[in-house]
Amino acid sequence: SQTIHQWPATLVQPVGSPLSLECTVEGTSNPNLYWYRQAAGRGLQLLFYSVGIGQISSEVPQNLSASRPQDRQFILSSKKLLLSDSGFYLCAWRAGTGWTEAFFGQGTRLTVV
Amino acid sequence: DQQVKQNSPSLSVQEGRISILNCDYTNSMFDYFLWYKKYPAEGPTFLISISSIKDKNEDGRFTVFLNKSAKHLSLHIVPSQPGDSAVYFCAAIGSGYALNFGKGTSLLVTP
User: Fold this and answer.
1) What pLDDT is recorded for position A17?
2) Are A91 and A83 in contact (CB under 8 A)?
3) Residue A61 pLDDT > 70, yes or no?
4) Category of B40 on φ-ψ map: left (φ > 0), alpha (ψ -120 to 50) or beta
5) Which of A35, A66, A80, B18 is most buried by a 10 A CB count?
6) A97, closest residue in chain B (CA to CA)
7) Is A94 in Cβ contact with B99 (below 8 Å)?
8) Chain B 26-65, residues with CB within 8 Å of chain A CB atoms
């Protein structure tokens, strides 16, 4: 069966510090991978998605970047965090083709102080 | 620009009654629609989906209806239970790979 791992679960970082959130998927190959953010009281905002190694599509220009160094690994990064980067970050995967649902990780609560 | 809209931020329903959650979309290229349930500090969990070739899909207490001409879908929960209290998200995907979500509707089922 397929599983998705996302870590850390919670993170408190000072303004201006770097960020690296990692997401890995097991039990499938060539998944579509997604990063979402849920700010306080808001919906799920799509940040990045990837359909293959090294292929990243950015939905919202901002202080974040994403990379996919391996087929089942998706990394969200920032060189210098802003207060506005605080939120609940979610990674998801979806089978590459067809009408299929996405499966989410448990999320990372990031607080920038 | 929000392509998937859930215009009701919250909904309160009595236990045993029907809950109806609504969703509108603007992109006519969307052809697959999904509903997710989310608790605080957890990832969303998939509930039910519908493709554009159907107008209804049923799974137990959950039924999703799709009206393509109106670009509208709805999720019906019958009967509603207190454990159904959560935030419900509507999502849509089209010819691309971006999975777009609405802002969610918070459902409260009262005993």
Assistant:
1) 97
2) no
3) no
4) beta
5) A35
6) B97
7) yes
8) 31-32, 34, 36, 41-46, 49, 51
Q: Which two tokens stand for residue A108?
A: 């990372």
pLDDT-flagged residues of chain B (< 50): none
* Distance of alpha carbon A13 from alpha carbon B110, whole angstroms: 39
DSSP string, A32-54: EEEEEEE-TT---EEEEEEEETT
Helix (H, G, I), strand (E, B) or coil at A9: coil
Average pLDDT over residues A33-58: 90
Q: What is chain A's mean pLDDT, rounded?
A: 92
Nearest alpha-carbon partner for B109 in B7, B8, B20, B5:
B20
Query: Nearest CA to B47 among B104, B96, B9?
Result: B104
- Token code pair at residue B95: 């010819």
Instruction: Measure the N-to-C terminal CA separation of chain B; round to a whole number of Å.
Output: 38
Residue A91 has pLDDT above 90, yes or no: yes
